Amino acid sequence: MALYRSGYRFCRCLALTLILVGVTEVKGQLMWVQLHNGSLGNVTTAAPVPPGRRDAVLGYDVTRNQLILFGGTPGPLNDTWIYNVANNEWREVNTSGAPNPPARYAAVGGVSGGYFYLAMGKGPHDVYYNDVWRLDLAGTERWEMLPVAPQTTPAQQDNSSQPYSPPGRAFTTGGIYVTGSRLYVSLGTNDDMRTKYTFAYDVVSNLWFKEDEGCNLYDPRCPHPRYLHSGVMTGSEEFVVFSGCLSGEGSAGPCPSHDAWRYDGQAKTWTQLDNCPTPRLYGTMAMLPEAEGKRYVALYGGQTNTATIVQTADLAADEVAILDLESGSWTLRQAAPENNMTAVPELRVSAAMATGPDGIFLFGGASYHGVHANDLWLLRGNATYADQSPSSPCAPMTTTFVTVHGILMVIGFGFLLPIGALLMRHFSCIYTHVTFQILGICCAIAGFVLGVVSVRSAHFSFAHAIIGIIAVILGVLQPINALCRPKEPRPEERKGVARTVWQFVHRFGGRVSILLGLINSSLGVFLAVAVLPIIIAWYTWLGLLVLLWFVGEIARCLGRMRQKGKGGRPMASTLHGSQSDGIINGWEKGDGAYVNPVTESVRL
Q1: Residue 112 and residue 121: Cα distance in Å, rounded?
Q2: Cis omega before residue 256 (within 30°)?
Q3: CB neighbours of residue 12 within 10 Å
Q4: What fold characterizes domain 400-603?
Q5: Prediction pTM value
Q6: To 5 degrees, how large is the angle CA 391–CA 392–CA 393?
Q7: How far apart are CA 247 and CA 244, in angstroms?
Q8: pLDDT tens for each residue of 491-532
Q9: What are phi and psi of 101, to 5 degrees?
Q10: pLDDT (tens digit, 9 = 90+) per residue, 113-141?
Q11: Does 2.120.10.80 match the CATH number of domain 27-397?
């Protein structure tokens, strides 16, 4: 009997040890649980499953404990699927014989009041929709197209109190909150432009209203026009936006950008948030279930490397960025697998996510190899679990072509060219002037090329680009102009008309080029969504340049007045003069050249 008991205890201990080592579930932190592997049927049924896709719309119906999936690409698709969470089973909704939303992807939607809503999106042949649909979840499971106000005049569009039907768009932010009655649409693209406007569709009155006018490209108070960004509704009149592409179709900036924003629909204000996660395109966001009064947003996946990226941080497969809506700050967390016998989802872009009672559902998306997935996962946990998950440092700064473009332009137009011009004007440093100007123009040309490459389309359709190309052309003409200068008259000779015209063109062209370059650099720090310390540093340096110019001009005027008080220095047209103090007939020697301080003529 004693031997039997000892053997029994040994077996129990061995079994417990195997469980702890092999399949121990991780407690108290975010974890990934695979609900469905996407294969046809599962271990108990042979039910159909939706084909793999990306850019679909996913919503969770808390009353019936089910997920609703619509559309996506490749295709695009217009199928509707429902996933029963309790039974772990997909089924396709039969919509034959009834109106059905046209095939589309990159739309917005959500579940509220017993309906699954759908709006906007891109369809076949580059069609952009601005319609609104809803699926009855409580009874018929039929789609219904909701009425919208007709297109209105531009004057009415500018009046937020007037009903308005916005143009179609895709890759937008918005949707409808589970307790909301307004479906929001903000930012996005329709290939003709990157839009900055925010609209809301009232599902009770069936009317669109313009909520926010947005900002111009150089206004730091709200997000610049963009698409391919991440976003999620965080309240009935509140949503969050992160990163995205700010380039192309009348807009410019980083692609991807690093900024994050929150929109308050009641106050109609934007608030910029912390920027900790790696900038990305095609990321996905969803709310974590609330806990202990904490409201957190989770950001998952996306594409960090693009054609205009110089350096960036790669995403880890288990990385989930968490945004605290109260403080506006981010943390990077690791979500563990359900146990050490399973894995986490393969990194992907454009997955669909929806908030459930136990965590966040994730469906589909495309892998980095272009494979379209149809597996279903649950990021189990709430806000408290997120706080208890392992953390990692914020991502290092991402360097894009826009970053390098800005650095080169600041070195060229912000330092070398203006300093070279000041040294020539006030100290007659001709060789230093030539060296600085050539180096400055080289920086400007290199920066210009990178600036053009960084803009996806419509390269010269906004002020920064137009001013930039004028400044660079004028700058490039300066050394060419210098090589073609007429011969400088000797001190005893009068200056000819050709020399006079050349001097005017050279000085005027150089000064206009530098002025436009400084103006454009001042606009560029906002266009590039530069952080506040960089903006402060640039405008401090710009103020110092202006101060140096004023001090130089005052000293120059005082010097002329002092010379006049002593009897006056011979003018350039004077044929005779003193040779004392390095001055010969009005020509002052400096840095290996003779310079007339009155006319600024140079003679080597």
Answers
A1: 19
A2: yes
A3: 10
A4: Four Helix Bundle (Hemerythrin (Met), subunit A) (1.20.120)
A5: 0.83
A6: 135
A7: 9
A8: 666 777 888 888 888 888 899 999 999 999 999 999 999 989
A9: -60, 140
A10: 999 999 999 999 999 999 999 999 998 89
A11: yes
